[in-house]
Amino acid sequence: MKTLDRYIAKSVFAAVLIVQMLLLGLDMMLALVNELDNLNDSYQLSNVLYYVMLSAPRRFYDLVPVGVMVGALIGLGSLASNNELAVIRAAGVSITRIIWSVMKPMLLIIAVTAFVGEFISPKTEVEAQNYRTMKRWDTTNAAGKWGVWLRDGNDYFYFRSIRTDGKLSGVQRHSFDETGKRLLSITYAQSGRYDFDKKGWILDQAVKANIGTHRVINEQIPSIFWSSDLKPELMKVIILEQRYLAPSDLWRYSRYLKDQGLKSHEHEMAFWQKVLLPLTLSSLVLVAASFVFGPLRSAPAGTRVFSGVIVGLAVKYVQDILGPASVVYGFDPVWAVLTPAIGCALYGVFLIRRTG
């Protein structure tokens, strides 16, 4: 059986790898074409190529569900087309045993995907977005063109940019009273840097406007200390979309938002999507196997590929739809991820039982 396991695993793994590389190459090509409209004197073709290459790990991670689904269909489909699955079944090997042989290479794919999603793609994506911003707008800033707003207790902060070295520039601090209704002061600072000894930010070259009942008093302050749990590593999380972040960063930032009394639903949703990705991939492989043994047993390869793309995208879109629905109807975001995955797995089990 070990020889059979290796043969099936090799066929499926090779198909998944080829499909994944093709999808990644196509996605990077489309990204390259899309960026050509943004070329200018400081953002040239060589810069675009570097940006696209930096974003490759994130694109690889995003494409894994579809790549696994289509690759499993092609790998098993080729075995079925050559009547190899029929011979294996005739030798007394059950469908369940064949599916287990297919699942084994998925463990390696899941491990690699989890490693990329936690340690590689978040870092390279930060660098990619920072590099793209610096070149497109010819600046050393990294937060984007319009800046970032952040709430910390009764204070609201605006940062014009977050530099790649973790420093802030163009900082505004709007301080309110305990009720959150009366504005007490507005502070403007040219830059901010984190002090690891004092565990807080130091805002340099600051101007503070104290707002009284009848007048506003301005004062020049060389530096102001801002005590905050937001370290530079967590501050960089703010500049990226949730789907680009590592699961650990998503969890820490969602806890921070909850502590501040802010909504953390989107970050929790993205966290569960990444943590439960192995379950989603397993359910997609199960459906792929059920298709090959069932309705797509004698279908052309093109039909299998089309079906795989449809199912893979359907699971993703249902998760995206259930995410906002969980806010409206008040159920836990984890069910927005679990429901499509479990439904997909149950559908695969149903097809296999009907075939068997």
Automatic annotation (TrEMBL):
Membrane topology value: Multi-pass membrane protein
Entry similarity comment: Belongs to the LptF/LptG family.
GO biological process assignments: lipopolysaccharide transport; transmembrane transport
Described function: Part of the ABC transporter complex LptBFG involved in the translocation of lipopolysaccharide (LPS) from the inner membrane to the outer membrane.
Location, primary (coarse class): membrane
Subunit structure: Component of the lipopolysaccharide transport and assembly complex. The LptBFG transporter is composed of two ATP-binding proteins (LptB) and two transmembrane proteins (LptF and LptG).
Lineage of origin: Bacteria, Pseudomonadati, Pseudomonadota, Gammaproteobacteria, Oceanospirillales
Alphabetized NCBIfam families for the sequence: LptG_lptG (TIGR04408)
Protein name listed in UniProt: LPS export ABC transporter permease LptG
